[in-house]
Specification:
single chain; 196 residues; alpha+beta; Chalcone isomerase; six-stranded antiparallel β-sheet; globular; binds heme C
Length: 196
């Protein structure tokens, strides 16, 4: 009897890894939004970033980067954002965008999901309004096109002034958005931090 029971349990256990390998379905946008809210409530800053650090444009003149444990552990282990070459499955990083009046203008997120998008490092990309309305979700070409500039860092940028993009790149993606004056100044004083 006992042997039968054990057989039953072990055959169930054997199925679990198969199921989780196949689980490349992303969470729904609202499920991911809930995870983002948890990080916001816990003030879970990304290692290597600061609250209200400078952002690139007037719509994100200030930013706050948040990260879950999997993301932050990878950064700590590597020593810096620039040294991470692969984030683990489940790593989540969030950017809160604030305007010059420090009003929240939008939230972007990247969730690492093994097998989701192998050609582009398996990130689920998401963009939300401050109220949580979904602006974009999934394999968003524009997000991917720009974040590939740091493929060797597995798509995650270090915040300004450690890494920055030239005005021409921002303008190429967002022709109508103004560059934040502080960012323009940082580009002049930290020319070596510009990602090529
Ligand atoms: C034109 C380039 C560009 C585009 C397009 C872009 N990003 Fe980013 N993103 C950056 C840069 C550069 C940073 C680093 C912070 C900064 O400079 O403000 C960043 C930061 C982030 C972060 C914080 C983690 C990190 O890499 O520092 C997330 C999350 C993020 N972006 C998600 C997105 C999503 C989702 C989209 C699409 C809706 C998107 N990004 C579109 C350039 C871009």
């Amino acid at each position: 009897m006992k042997r039968f029971l054990m057989f039953g349990v072990s055959s169930i256990l054997a199925v679990i890894p198969v199921l989780s390998q196949a689980a490349t379905q992303p969470p729904s946008p609202s499920e991911l939004w809930n995870e983002v809210q948890t990080l916001r409530m816990n003030n879970a800053l990304m290692v290597g970033s600061k609250a209200y650090q400078p952002g690139s444009r007037t719509i994100d003149a200030y930013t706050i980067d948040l990260a879950n444990k999997a993301e932050n552990d990878a950064i700590r282990k590597a020593g810096s954002i620039q040294k991470v070459t692969r984030y683990p499955n489940g790593a989540l990083v969030v950017k809160e965008n604030f305007n010059e009046q420090r009003k929240l203008t939008g939230i972007t997120a990247m969730l690492k999901l093994d097998g989701y998008d192998p050609a582009d490092r398996n990130w689920v990309m998401a963009a939300y309004t401050p109220a949580g309305k979904v602006v974009g979700y999934g394999k968003i070409p524009a997000c991917i096109a720009c974040h590939t500039m740091v493929t060797k860092q597995d798509f995650v940028f270090a915040p300004p002034p450690d890494q920055m993009l030239p005005v021409s790149v921002w303008k190429g993606f967002f022709p109508k958005q103004d560059i934040a004056p502080v960012y323009a100044e940082l580009l002049r004083t930290h020319a070596d931090a510009i990602v090529k």
